[in-house]
Structures are given as C-alpha cells and as structure tokens.
C-alpha cells in the first residue's frame, strides 16, 4: 500500500506542475488572442489575419511600451493607470500584490551589487540576501529605524514568493558577485537551477 501511495505522490509531483504550467500558458495565450484579434481584424483585411498574430502584436506592444519608458513623459503616462488602480477600493490590494510579485521576481527594485551573504551570529550558517535599505538615509521610514552601520536585507524563501526583511550590522554581510534577479531565482529554486556566480574575494 505504501508503494502505491508513494508512486501516486511521485507521479502527481511530476505531472501536476506540467499540467498547471500548460493550462496557465494556454489561458494567457487564449485571453490575449481573443482580446486583441477583433481589434486587428478591424485594421487588417480579413485575408491578412492569421491565428497567433494577436499574440505577436501583444509582444511587440509590450516591447514598445517598455522601450518608451526611457522618456519621462511616456513613463508617466504608462504609470498613470497603475496609480489609479492603487487608489480604487477593492482593486488596490489585488493590483498592488500582483505588481509586487512581478517586481520581486524580476529584481526590478534591487540595485546591482546589493546581493550579500548574511552570516548568522554564533554560527557558520550563511543566507543569501539582497540589501534593500541602508541606515542613515534621510526621509526614509525604514532607514530611520536603523543605525548608520545597519543594513536591511531581504531574505527570499525557497519555493515561495515571500521572505523576511532582517536588520543586520554591515559586518555580518559580505558581497557576492551576483545580479539581484539571479539571486532571487537561485534562492526561490532552492539552488536547484543552473545559475552560476563567482564570489568576490
């Protein structure tokens, strides 16, 4: 009986992530296709449109929007809908949570050179973290709670979009040569990925 249950659980661990990933991708592609296809058909002759063109147009549109944020005027324009969503009751929590998750996964709000190893006091154990704030910064709520030689370090959790923010002395950290986004991917996958980084001496 134990062999049957163990085999079932092992099989589910292999099959379910595949099914969920495929279904999420299928849902996303179908949503984009069904949403943009009518607009493209209004612009293009019917014979010119072929399935999948809406998805390609969506990718190109995202690239154009992303590139246009290099100019402050366009950046303000694209930020405006999000600011409105954050002020609307009921949608602010959902939009804010999704925005934070995407920015966390992309490492957008972390500066290069901010990845550190944090050594636990009285232990040889070290944790990979990302510096988010430094003490002594004026007009910053988090920084005002810290001493000048303290750092706020975000410690990501494996297999979970979350983590802890800890306040540690600078002496408890050492920098490692790794991009913040790479550190997030490495930690969230519990080190099972193929990412490599050299440690600064």
Automatic annotation (TrEMBL):
The chain crosses the membrane at residues 7-28, 48-67. Keywords: Membrane, Transmembrane, Transmembrane helix. InterPro entries: COV1-like. The keyword Metal-binding does not apply. The keyword Transmembrane helix applies. It holds the Pfam family DUF502. This is DUF502 domain-containing protein. It comes from Rheinheimera muenzenbergensis.
